[in-house]
Amino acid sequence: MTPGVTIGEFSRMCHLSAKTLRYYHDISLLVPAGVDEETGYRRYAPGQVDDAHLIRRLRDLDMPLAEIRGVLAEPDAAARQDALARHLDRMEAELTRTRDVVASLRRLLGSEPELPVRHRRAPGSPVLRVSAWLARTDVSDWCGRVFPELYATLDALGTDPAGPAGATYSAEFFEGEAGEVVAFVPVDAAAVPPGDDRFGFLPASRYAIAVHSGPFVDCDITYGRLGLHVAEHDTALPDPIVEVYLVGPGDTTDPDGFRTEICWPIS
To answer: How far apart are CA 245 and CA 63, in angstroms?
Structure first.
């Protein structure tokens, strides 16, 4: 007789049905300690209970079976923990994204307050800047990296910002799969080191401006309403749209407190 507990007993121990256990055996995910040669009955070792519990929870988290098999096959405990931690990090990020989208949808379904729109003729200004050709899905991570680097550069030069940071978004960024994004921090002209190509110039322009209050995930709503205003009252230019982060992640950890100035170029 093969040692261990029956599939029924093991099922009660780990809260996995016998059908599920047989399937996991068939795909070599959780192989019984032995199979009776005469009856074909599966028997499990008590030490397999922990693996069964782990499998059940990882399936509840939608981890693919192939990844679970890799985790269970990992002989090193630390490596197994690292693999599990990476999956949990992905799940937490996805949960945060889902919550943000749900909250955004609730705000979209609510009543729309009046959106104040003003006009401003902005003079050209020197900026410390960095640019990249980015897909829309990569912008958040990229900005999270480059803005601290821009401020660190100014700090190393002993230069203070001359205003809030911002970014420009090319027409291709909105119309295609990717486009140029330029992150910048304004500086005083006198603070620009001669010949330092890390500095550039934000050209003079006239803008229709609205302030978006709240998380960046909702910015498209303000973009839509501002764009409609421009279509009805102004003449839009194909120049990059400018976002100015009046209150951003560097100022508060609460996305509801973010305030972003959206500047739509007009003639």
So the answer is: 37
The set of residues, in sequence order, having a beta carbon less than 8 Å from that of 105 and lying 6+ positions away, is none
Please write the tens of the pLDDT for every residue from 203-259: 999 999 999 998 888 888 889 889 999 999 999 999 999 999 999 998 999 988 999
CA 14 to CA 99: how far, in whole Å?
Answer: 31
Report the half-sphere exposure of 128 (CA within 13 A, side-chain side).
28
Separation between Cα atoms, residue 88 and residue 221, nearest integer Å? 31
Q: Which two tokens stand for residue 147?
A: 């803005």
C-alpha 215/C-alpha 235 separation (Å) is 28
Q: Say how far apart CA 71 and CA 86 lie, in whole Å.
A: 11
3-state secondary structure (DSSP) of residue 182: strand
pTM higher than 0.90 for the full model? no
- CA Rg, the chain, in Å? 28
Burial 10-20 (b: 16+ CB within 10 A, else e): bbeebebeeeb
CA distance 70 to 182: 41
pLDDT tens readout for residues 89-102? 888 888 777 777 77
189: its two tokens: 């002209």
Tokens of 13: 């121990």
Alpha helices, DSSP H, located in 27-76: 49-60, 65-73
